[in-house]
Amino acid sequence: MEIRTVQRTASTNADMLALAANGAAEGLWLRAIEQTAGRGRLGRAWVSPPGNLYASTIVRLRAGDTGAATLALVAAVALEETLRAYGADATIKWPNDLLIGDAKLTGILLERTGDAVVVGIGVNLAHHPDGLDRKTTSLAAQGSTPPDAELFLRDLADAFARWLTAWRRSLDEVRRRWLDRAHPLGTALSVRLPDLPPLEGLFDGLDDQGALRLRLPSGEVQVIHAGDVFTI
Fold first, then answer.
1. What is residue 40's predicted lDDT score, i.e. its pLDDT?
2. Partners of residue 125 on adjacent β-strands
3. pTM for this one?
4. From CA 187, how far away is CA 201, in angstroms rounded?
């Protein structure tokens, strides 16, 4: 494992995609103290002032590895474990968020080039943005002294490495942990899909490949592979 830190960059994910394309090895992490063009899912901007964690790592897919999208589960369980060690009681929400209450604390962005998957992670340690389409929070806003981002990343990188090893043994091991740390079965959810009306239903777990199972009012279960999910 190697961690590199830069004072400022546009996006750690963009930098890591370039490094991956040039042969950077699995286990490399890049942390920025500040990002000027941080990215979230679906092309959203990720506000990136100093004091929070902005970091990306590389996973090199091997023969026999499960679907690359399930690395979001690995990142989520590693993040939850690390936050818990710092005293934060966070809940995982599909596909890639950790919440405190109903407010977003972290984000995860997966991007791929060749056999490399770049896993970007943002954690609101000291600050959180306002005026978004969802509630947000930070560890500081929860009354905690925000941890040093570098020390937090070292603990997170250790947890990610352990859960990546577990993922290569069995996706089900990671999936079980994810479900154990997620909001309860039966939680009311609203799912926004591109160019379609929102779907509302109840959380019915994950399928065996990590997709969301949504139980509709009719009793039918719809499997969601991509979308924006909100608790109701």
1. 57
2. none
3. 0.92
4. 8
